[in-house]
Design goal:
Layout: E1 34-35, E2 40-41, E3 58-60, E4 65-68, E5 84-87, E6 93-95, H1 139-148, H2 162-167, E7 190-196, E8 205-210, E9 216-220, E10 230-231, E11 241-243, E12 248-251, E13 256-259, E14 263-266, H3 268-277, H4 291-295, E15 320-326, E16 333-338, E17 343-348, E18 353-355, E19 358-360, E20 368-373, H5 384-400, E21 408-411, E22 420-421, E23 430-431, H6 440-450, E24 461-466, E25 469-470, E26 473-477, E27 480-483, H7 484-498, E28 502-507, H8 515-518, E29 523-527, H9 544-554, H10 558-571, E30 582-585, E31 600-602, E32 608-609, E33 624-631, E34 638-644, E35 666-669, E36 677-682, E37 689-699, E38 702-705, E39 709-713, H11 727-738, H12 747-750, H13 760-770
Parallel strand pairs: 20-21, 20-24, 24-28, 28-29
Antiparallel strand pairs: 1-2, 3-31, 4-5, 5-6, 6-10, 7-8, 8-9, 11-12, 12-13, 13-19, 14-18, 15-16, 16-17, 22-23, 25-26, 26-27, 29-30, 32-33, 33-36, 34-35, 34-37, 37-38, 37-39
Helix pairs in contact: 5-9, 6-7, 9-10, 11-13
Length: 773
């Protein structure tokens, strides 16, 4: 039956005004699986291959919901009763439906089974047709009843527009296509939007979004469909588009940057590949848009085409445009958008449709980066090559996570062209501040003045310093040493002026000594080691910073990236396992749980190395061929091995502002057929004992490592040089154990236990060999 609320409340009509909270954000679709034309495939092995760039490869503005009680207070996720849900991405607050039992109860406007006709008496918002009052009630009845009772403490409830309904659609689910943990009782059917079709001949129809799979359609206003009310949001600016550069258009509210030109028809696989390889205007982060992103371009006040033709002049009004989102109901099909009316549709992936690429769009709170590649370029700077490599890596990672060049102050004495140079090797000069002879005063000035002047950027100040270090000291440049207390003074002045967070990352020996001096509220301090030495592979490829930045690039939190780098250093073995990275967060913040540049992820970055086999024992001075299989490779994939001989001794501790020299031998492996199988041979097996070998693969600047394998060189002990293992060798060995002479005996050729010393195990081996056992 129709609700028996007094008719007087009809005068409180606060029906939807075609508003949208989508301003500033297009949420992720929820699709987390990858597909080709016929079946599910792994997202993690797609990089550089067919079907890369599809929806699930990118997680941008992932869903986040909070349950609310009747007073609008936050509840924990594990509660079983709640009446509203706040979408933390869009800011919209949604009504929660109740009692889904396939029986309508019109005495309860929240009943999940109630259906209504569409009605809006306001000629300003009804599209020229008020709709149908209905028998059991209509959409206006529902909205007015909610506002009459001030449901949840609010009186601004309204009917959502079409894209607001789409914002809570989960395209990775179906029947229903939304998250039941927050929206229980959702029917696998249509829900009314506030928007009438723009075609005058269709003024009797309004857009409905169907939660079977997320499809929308225009339905007669006399039809009966479900209603879910919403509140909050901002009215969308009708003039939100602007010509950007190099043939692109920027949506200043969503942050999405669109290819202005419409590309000819192509298959879904071709569309993905086209967008991934597009370099329009220089950036290389173009992608095929998701269904939610492409739908944000639809202008439902227009038809043929339903898009702003001032900016998108060649948009086809007769053919669909591909999205990167696979249709969950049939993985051989993907979602498209037709711009005659601005409606979505589903197409076979083998069909050919138009393409318009997109980039950007995530909620990004970047910040400012001050990057110090210390030490100078003199030949006596042993860290010069590693420092340059790691500093450029950090810079590229920050740019890849949404930072602009204007956000970066890069103290780089290696910059060959002054303020303009190609630091990332893409053939174009990069506008990043460079300083060939940085001083302590200039570093402090960059913190206290330059970073303070970045007032338009509310994100944290990131300070990354890479070079020689000592207890509470860091070398910016030869003779320019900043101490921990001076750095703390500059950071404190910055925070007192701006009230912004600070993240400090230091790759240097004894960098952990900075932690206690720099710790303060709203600061996160991360160091590659404690108060002892740090170790770098000669080119910086094996380092805390490499592993840490790899995970930050992928979208992991600072805490998870730190834990990963820490574990990888342990896995690399001596001397890297000696390092003890530090992470310290001051009160008043949760920076460890944040992600660099925003809450979005990038999949498919890490090459995976197959577990290498255990190799048979070999004789000294023989060769061993190694072979590993690496997935997710490209033309520039590099694979190498680091060999740790049984007589290897880690470098001795060094004094302040010096660096220990890591001299482990390496071996490059080559893939002759570019099939992912890499091989190489090593010949310097000169010592008895176990050689530990770890394989590394670098792809797209990201490094992975294998579990260690071993090669055992069989012992041939000949201390006395008579070309045999006999009792004379045992006597010399015992003299060594007791410290009586034989100081010059070759331990490398006479040691079998792997502990680097002559002991009883070696003596027993000699005696057994002498006895023929």
């Amino acid at each position: 039956m129709k609700s028996t609320k007094p008719a007087a409340f009809l005068t409180i009509l606060i029906l939807s005004l075609s508003m949208s909270a989508m301003a500033g954000v297009v949420p992720d679709t929820g699709q987390s699986k990858c597909y080709n034309d016929t079946q599910e495939i792994s997202c993690l092995t797609l990089s550089g291959k067919d079907f890369y760039g599809q929806d699930a490869v990118y997680t941008i503005n992932p869903s986040s919901y909070t349950k609310l009680d009747a007073q609008g207070n936050d509840l924990t996720d594990n509660v079983t009763e709640w009446i509203m849900v706040r979408d933390n991405v869009t800011g919209l607050i949604w009504e929660v439906k109740q009692a889904k039992d396939e029986k309508a109860d019109y005495s309860n406007i929240h009943d999940a089974d109630n259906v209504y006709t569409w009605y809006d008496s306001n000629p300003e918002t009804n599209g020229g047709d008020p709709g149908n009052l209905g028998i059991a009630g209509n959409t206006a009845d529902v909205i007015n009843a909610l506002n009459f009772e001030a449901f949840g403490g609010y009186s601004d409830w309204r009917l959502p527009d079409r894209e607001e309904l789409r914002s809570i659609t989960d395209y990775g689910r179906y029947m229903p296509a939304t998250d039941p943990n927050y929206f229980p009782g959702t029917a696998s059917s249509g829900y009314w939007s506030s928007v009438t079709l723009a075609d005058e001949d269709d003024a009797g129809k309004s857009w409905c979004l169907h939660f079977e799979y997320g499809l929308e359609s225009g339905r007669d206003k006399s039809s009966e469909y479900y209603v879910r009310a919403v509140r909050g949001g901002e009215e969308r600016n009708s003039d939100r588009l602007m010509n950007y550069d190099h043939g692109t258009v920027k949506d200043i509210e969503t942050g999405l940057i669109w290819q202005q030109r419409s590309e000819p028809a192509m298959t879904w696989k071709e569309a993905l590949a086209y967008c991934e390889t597009l370099t329009l205007g220089g950036p290389e982060d173009w992608r095929l848009p998701t269904i939610k992103e492409l739908a944000s371009l639809a202008d439902l006040d227009r038809i043929n085409p339903a898009i702003n033709i001032k900016y998108f002049t060649d948009t086809s009004g007769t053919s669909a445009y591909w999205t990167s989102t696979t249709y969950a109901g049939d993985i051989a099909s993907a979602w498209g958008m037709a711009f005659d009316l601005g409606n979505d549709n589903i197409h076979s992936k083998s069909g050919k449709y138009h393409v318009r690429a997109v980039r950007g769009g995530w909620v990004s709170v970047t910040g400012s980066l001050i990057l110090v590649a210390g030490g100078g370029i003199d030949d006596d700077n042993t860290l010069k090559e590693s420092t340059k490599y790691l500093a450029d890596l950090v810079c590229s990672r920050f740019l890849g996570r949404g930072f602009d060049e204007k956000d970066i102050y890069y103290f780089d004495p290696n910059g060959p062209n002054g303020l303009f140079y190609d630091f990332n090797g893409n053939g174009e000069k990069d506008l990043i501040v460079s300083d060939e002879t940085p001083t302590v005063e200039e570093l402090r000035s960059s913190i206290e003045i330059w970073a303070v002047d970045q007032a338009s950027n509310p994100g944290p100040l990131y300070l990354v310093m890479i070079n020689h270090g000592g207890i509470d000291t860091f070398e910016i440049y030869p003779g320019e040493i900043i101490n921990a207390s001076g750095l703390n003074e500059a950071l404190t002045k910055f925070q007192d002026t701006t009230n912004r967070d600070v993240v400090v990352m230091i790759e240097a020996c004894k960098s952990g000594s900075f932690v206690d001096d720099l710790s303060a509220p709203n600061r996160l301090i991360i160091t590659c080691t404690d108060e002892n030495d740090a170790y770098l592979e000669i080119k910086g490829r094996i380092s805390f910073t490499q592993f840490f930045m790899d995970k930050l690039r992928a979208g992991e939190t600072f805490a998870d990236s730190f834990a990963y780098a820490q574990s990888q250093l342990k896995a690399c073995g001596t001397p890297y396992s000696r390092m003890n990275p530090k992470i310290e967060e001051g009160t008043g913040s949760s920076l460890q749980l944040e992600r660099l540049g925003g809450d979005y992820a990038v999949a498919g970055l890490f090459p995976k190395i197959s577990d290498p086999p255990e190799y048979p024992d070999i004789k000294p001075d023989t060769s061993q061929t190694f072979s590993v299989t690496v997935s997710d490779i490209s033309n520039d994939t590099k694979v190498w091995a680091v060999v740790r001989p049984p007589d290897y001794r880690p470098p001795a501790l060094v004094e302040d502002l010096k660096a220990p020299e890591v001299t482990l031998p390496t071996l490059d492996l080559i893939s002759e057929n570019n099939d992912g199988v890499f091989t190489g041979s090593y010949e310097a097996f000169t010592c008895n004992g176990k050689y530990s070998i770890i394989f590394y693969a670098r792809n797209e600047g990201v490094i992975s490592l294998s579990s260690p394998t071993t090669v055992t060189v069989m012992p041939v002990i000949d201390y006395n040089g008579d070309n045999s293992t006999d009792i004379g060798d045992a006597i010399l060995g015992l003299r060594m154990i007791t410290g009586i002479g034989a100081e010059d005996t070759d331990v490398c050729r006479g040691e079998i236990s792997g502990d680097g010393k002559i002991g009883l195990e070696e003596i027993v081996h000699i005696l057994r060999t002498s006895a023929g056992l």
